[in-house]
UniProtKB/TrEMBL annotation, chains A, B, C:
Domain Beta-galactosidase C-terminal per the UniProt entry, residue ranges: 614-674
Lineage: Bacteria, Bacillati, Actinomycetota, Actinomycetes, Kitasatosporales
Protein name, per record: Beta-galactosidase
Highest rank taxon of the organism: Bacteria
Organism annotation: Streptomyces aureus
Glycoside hydrolase family 42 N-terminal domain sequence ranges: 15-386
């Protein structure tokens, strides 16, 4: 059952909470769903207090009716286990299920997504509920997939978690000597002599100024890993409870893209398919959600994922919640498909009448109209998806460029005292991703443990920690003739964030052919222009002073006492023309583009429309070998492009001969089936 | 005893704390009071530890001497019950009287205004003290008014309050079903099955990022109402204890104007007269304190109030504490009288020698001089008030314009997730008030439950919640030929902040003749110019997209995909030329002026000096029908105005014939008795 | 044993933590130490868990080897007592040794420098450890000095501290009446009737918005004094334990310069010599560390101190950690010597492999190289210091200008409500220091209790509290013909921060010949130009309105209603031409320069290079009377100066005749032995 659920078209619909409404509203809902081409409903996400109103009472009456009503209308159900928000009686009976926060405060009942992952009561009751639901609905004909819990996240610092953490550590390290060595506890006289002395790293123990400031990175790294595993344990327990009754229906839980608290790479093997909720930050460029899509696709080795949530119009949780303007929803939805989504789903079908999400956009608003602009746009997209049918399902991305994404490096870098608190992992990773994507390269975003043998180019920005055999595998890329790009603040620490006792960049040194003698960091507004010959890129934040050990300079600093020394280098490696590129500072976009395009062009990976600003391309190859080329115009002007081979636009049916011009409206989308 | 205390002139004086000083200082004080025309002293505000040094010991020796000394000098006393700051022994003996804060932390002894309103010990001891004081001084000839406690405020989240909250809810809702429905608890599986499951909404339960971010608005709204009522309960209990001994002397407590935590409209019926402490924010325009004055006047149906505190010179509690420049104190004091104040009082008579208010301005400074600039200004004002005598006492404002002010809407709007956290209730309400006042209209600031039948114009900006029969009463205004103005984000929720299941603006829709199809929100710096024909107003923050349902456009958006759609509309309503105006976005001052002046001019409510920048006018009508016209020059230049009818300036005695020019100095004041 | 340790050259080296490393690394270290001229190592700072792995187990094996290894290499040891970071077992066995923070939260195990100073367990165990170490190493030939604990700081608010605070108060005040009077508790009904009612002033009691906002300054001032004394008690206890075994070796602890939490003047008598860790704030001008050096030198009456820590390259703990550029380390090190340092030491000798300081600069980096730029610079400085030898040791600064530095005033001023929270004590004190230093005056930075009889000029900016006989001693300076300069917000309070019941500036009034009638404060961006005749200085923040009582105006305000009134005054005082200068507002640098230079020039204290921007001069006189003139070029350009008397540069051996030009490179240093 590994893989997305089997469907014949792109599932379209989303989160639906009819339990909040009288049944006459349900009828109106389904009528509107029909108008909008909606065939898939995620139900039950927050129904625990409904399904289990008391410890010994389960009541499925309402859920039965919801599911049956959907089935009667010919719709499929993604069924949630409902365990993401506690019922009040549970919190009252078992106060320890409420988390203790980073500040050491035991919370009381409220909100959601805030159960202690180490609580035996939570584990018992949530798995029992999941099992009961599975038992009841496993064979329901409308059932399409299982949706465990919802948006797992956060962390707990209670005594139960402390005890579980100690067990996790004992399992990992075996001995306190190994742990003391890994965490380098001698530094401040923290040598543990008994496991019970270890406390979760919090504002009351190792931290100050918040989660990124820790006295010992080792313990904090391990607590994040432990938290990842503890929540994963909750997922796995529910999944097993479901599997006992439903051995074949695919199981997922909805992720949140680049979500820092949880290392999704540790979760990926346990999901049948990946799914995620896309709410890009305000003013994010289109490559931002694209990066997240590719990261999610990378979770299951490139297999398609589901877009489990997006808003049809606005969010509500931000200080400012701009509207998706006409065309933006369509464009974002096709972008998801272009990057591997096999479903397009919304949060939410009908706007809540009360509570904090009542202003979150919905397919159906409070007045229940079908003549709002938003409804019309949703319905239009539904019809379009319907027209395309199942052709995109199961397709994969034939990328020859990989970008390494590593939660451990993210965590370690951003919790580091020195050199600069201003370097943001996501921003830098995105800057390299953006450069590759706008150059027209398809990119796989993969974990550091991924098989790299299929790639010509590996981008490894801010590879702060180098773990296991990664350095050797990167060298192998170059030995095959490929190119590896890494940056400042890479190769600094091992898996415990202990410095390598060698020159920087540690195990990446031979491949890069440089050593870093020292490093400077400066305030955000300070720049050192980096000279590429015909381009000057104002570098910022961190400036490593590089001493070449075989590498040749590509660009140099132009000011300060290290003016003239290399800021970017390339190093011939191996016998087949492979190279290691080292970028010793934070370039601006133009500088990053220069580096990345130069590398991609070595391998013929520059796309045909790389010079057309705002137009994104993405390729998918279907199981039967059909090549699909997605053209997405993120710009506000019309664009005319030459078509390079015979193709048919799946959205319009229009056929193009090679060289024929193709017009893309502002925010326009074209899905070409290449001949 | 409803109404302000009976006096023959405007009471002048303020807070006086001689218990901090040896008695020789008292003599100096009274000598200076004489020089300054001070006849009224508020005493006893922070005397609990003095009056009751131990649980079983009361000692009135010092207070007796203070009151007698004042009486001997011919001064009247506003006597406080002294219960606003706990004595140390009480906090020690009953730790539960110290509040538990929003973060869940039980406080220890310190500060003031921080007793738990649900504490039985506090209730018992405070009412006992109030009763003892009343018993002793009820018949003292110097007694003018009772001053219960001081600046009630804040909130507590302790177990006692939780229990009291549950009782309050049970009283309000009767059943948990009703409560679950009101709070829309099904949304996140929060259906309560036992009253004991309900916890105060705090940082540890339903909130994140502070008091404005709640998962469930319903519980948070109710907790604010409960807090209002709980503190009101403390007031009422003290008042009853006082009344038992003093049935006729008016009772008040000093409010704080637009103070968000407490809904003063719930308190108003329980006060004999309203009083408040005016400390306008830094750089507040003169309409800001004016709005607060009018709000306070509105508490008792337009009856006069007392200005209980203001600083003669500077505050101390702010980061920056500018001096009131020469003339500003006088102008602000007369402005208070112009808006309904029947007393002008200061905090404080003599500067404290120690503790956090020692730099707060005082009539008498640390050196005890009578030749400081501040003392001279205070004395000058005292003489001027004395010259005017009692003519203003009891006068009322003949306003034909009402502005609705609604704490529930304020709370609901600002705790809302979406559309924009940047909209501030006070700012928007003030912007409409400012527009009306600078156009020369007298304005009553009234609760949404007020009788609106006397008004030609009702301004209802940000009327987020529409409760009870308000919509019908607003329609009745228009049916009589009047005009109602409301804005974006109005008509959104019922009294529980549940969305109306109709088009926006909910029950206001028929009167406004529009429906809002969707809404956009943007960052603070983003503007969409709204076109009025000859004026463009850069609108900001929230942009509702209006579909007229009978209304005609007054102004339109000029950019974005909704360019050309209405931003301001007017709707003919009823048979007598009444209108409903809808302003779908946040206009700048010029745009708001345009809307409000156009509306006021329909009803002939533009004042004679509406084109004279900086000059405020206000009208009061005395009990004998005398019309007083206050002219206040807030500008820094001299202004010459034509007098429109025969009048006499009460401050100078100068008589004016119609058409005669009247000169107002910078910061000048004129109180015209109209013929 | 009062005084720095006896050495024959400037000790050079720093913190060394070989216990973190295998012994083969130690050999490499000592080899590199030899290359760098390093002769002094501070060891044992964080070794508690190593030396005492269990309550009853002490193990000195590793420390023995470290000390012996150093001795074998001919290096001297500064031996720490290792008590600054708790071992885990101790925190587990005695949870009360972990502090309770300002928010009332009991911490768990973690970090360092966070033991409760009132904990009996900590006191017992730390003194036992110190005694054991002293017993073992007192007679070791490598021992040069004792280093108690490390960077004492912070505060605790636990029950043990509350109890200790009450005892401290009882000792200080004798009676509650005295305490109530000192704290002015009547103000808000806080009259204590039992010592047990007193709670530490924290976020849960008297404070809001943090440590600077207190309802009662008296209790908060006393708590800071108590905290100073409580931590001092820990130091003294350890020192006594050391002294029992080591009666002659000098004892110190490393201070942190202008460190607000602790009043180092209360500590100074208990140290044998002062030492401190210099990490100037980002972008601090060179006078900032200079001020700190002079403050540290002032602790022991002008005796030399040790620079115990500085970074050879970068810090790690800041958001941004710039590199010390080539030449900066050398310049900063010689600046320390110029101001009285008799040692130049680093944190740290070898970079930690793990934990939060692994990126902090070190003499030896992770790769162990001796060919890094930093190592070369360190080695170069070591050789230079070696060449100069012992000539600077024991020298003193012949200053005729004193600057008063007063922790009580700092605390009182910055915890004051009103007039302005924007006035920063350090910034203003620095501005006067900077003006004097850049004019070429040597300055002693002394406590308010210092003997002032040797000074011609006393600068007393922001002398907020005037305690004891200080006013009389300042008058004595003027009576001798000297000049005293003070500023706005001086002379405001007594030692309890109670206002003086006289005109401002209180006891300074007669000397200054002014009274302050009132004061204004304005937002940061607002300025009032102060007119000096040929100079206008834009004054900011606070504007006192001065009424001369004998003083003559030096400069006047130019705007606002007090335009034309004095902003700076001078007052002839006494028979010998002495003067009191009063600066009633915050001038900019040019204005402060004008005042200070005018005062210095009265006494012939303007230095020979006062007009040469960027060049700092400092004088030291050695025990044998040799005069040394340090010339330090902080500028980025070469400077040529005339030499004014016969001199020899100790660094180059070059001799100069009077009038001969002396060239200083950018960041250049010259140490002239004057003939």
């Amino acid at each position: 059952m590994n893989g997305v659920p089997a469907t014949t078209a792109i599932p379209y619909g989303g989160d639906y909470n009819p339990e909040q409404w009288p049944e006459e509203v349900w009828d109106a809902d389904h009528r509107l769903f029909g108008k909008a081409g909606i065939d898939t409903l995620t139900v039950g996400v927050f129904t625990w207090s409904l399904l289990q109103p008391a410890p010994d009472t389960y009541d499925f009456t309402v859920l039965d009716r919801i599911v049956d009503r959907a089935a009667a209308a010919g719709r499929r159900i993604v069924l949630a286990t409902g365990t993401a928000a506690l019922p009040p009686w549970l919190a009252k009976a078992h106060p320890e299920v409420n988390r203790t926060d980073f500040e050491g405060r035991r919370h009381g009942y409220g909100q959601r997504h805030n159960f202690c992952p180490s609580s035996p009561a939570y584990r018992r009751l949530s798995t029992t509920l999941a099992g009961r639901i599975a038992e009841r609905y496993a064979d329901h004909p409308a059932l399409l997939a299982w949706h465990i819990n919802n948006e797992y996240g956060g962390a707990c610092y209670c005594g139960l978690c402390a005890e579980a953490f100690r067990g996790w550590l004992r399992e990992k390290y075996g001995s306190l000597d190994a742990l003391n060595d890994a965490w380098w506890t001698t530094f401040w006289s923290h040598r543990y002599t008994d496991w019970s002395e270890i406390e979760p790293p919090s504002a009351l123990t190792e931290h100050w100024r918040g989660p990124n400031h820790t006295a010992f990175q080792g313990i904090t790294l391990d607590y994040r890993r432990f938290t990842t595993d503890a929540l994963l344990g909750c997922f796995v327990a529910e999944k097993e409870a479901v599997r006992a009754h439903s051995p074949h229906t695919p199981v997922t839980t909805n992720f949140m893209g680049m979500y820092r608290p949880l290392d999704y790479h540790r979760w990926a093997p346990h999901l049948d398919f990946a799914s995620w909720d896309s709410y890009p930050p305000l003013d994010a460029p289109p490559t931002w959600p694209a990066l997240a899509h590719d990261l999610m696709r990378g979770l299951k080795g490139g297999a398609p994922f589901w877009l489990m949530e997006q808003t049809p119009s606005t969010t509500a949780c931000r200080d400012v919640n701009p509207l998706r303007r006409p065309g933006e929803l369509r464009l974002a939805s096709w972008q998801a498909v272009a990057h591997g989504a096999d479903a397009v789903l919304y949060f939410q079908m009908r706007a809540s009448r009360g509570a904090c999400e009542k202003y979150h956009g919905a397919v159906i608003g409070h007045a229940g109209r079908d003549d709002t602009r938003v409804f019309r746009d949703v319905a239009g997209l539904g019809q379009e998806l319907g027209r395309v049918g199942g052709v995109t399902l199961g397709a994969r991305t034939p990328a020859r460029t990989a970008l390494l994404f590593d939660w451990d490096s993210w965590w370690a870098l951003e919790m580091s005292d020195g050199p600069s608190r201003l370097v943001r992992y996501q921003d830098v990773v995105h800057s390299y991703y953006r450069a590759a994507r706008t150059a027209g390269a398809d990119v796989d975003v993969v974990p550091v443990t991924a098989d790299l043998s299929a790639y010509d180019v590996v981008l490894a920005p801010l590879l702060h920690l180098v773990k296991g055999d990664l350095a050797a595998r990167l060298e192998a890329v170059a030995e095959r003739g490929g190119t590896v790009v890494t940056t400042y603040l890479s190769g600094r620490g091992d898996e415990h964030d202990r410095a390598f006792l060698t020159d920087v960049p540690g195990p990446l040194g031979p491949l890069m052919g440089v050593r870093v003698d020292e490093w400077d960091s400066r305030a955000a507004e300070w720049t050192n222009p980096v000279d590429f010959g015909d381009l000057r890129s104002p570098a910022r934040l961190v400036f490593e002073l590089v001493v070449p050990q075989g590498a040749e300079p590509v660009a140099t600093y132009t000011t300060d006492f290290y003016a003239g020394t290399p800021a970017v280098t390339r190093n011939r490696f191996g016998e087949r023309g492979g190279e290691g590129w080292y970028v010793a500072t934070q370039l601006d976009d133009a500088g990053t583009d220069r580096v990345v395009r130069q590398v991609l062009s070595r391998h013929g990976l520059i796309g045909p429309y790389a010079e057309v600003a705002g137009v994104e391309t993405a390729t998918r190859v279907t199981p039967d070998g059909t090549r699909l080329l997605f053209l997405l115009n993120h710009g506000s002007g019309e664009v005319e492009l030459p078509v390079h081979e015979s193709a048919t636009d799946l959205l319009t049916g229009k056929a193009y001969a090679p060289g024929e011009p193709l017009a893309l409206d502002p925010l326009g989308v074209c899905v070409l089936r290449l001949a």
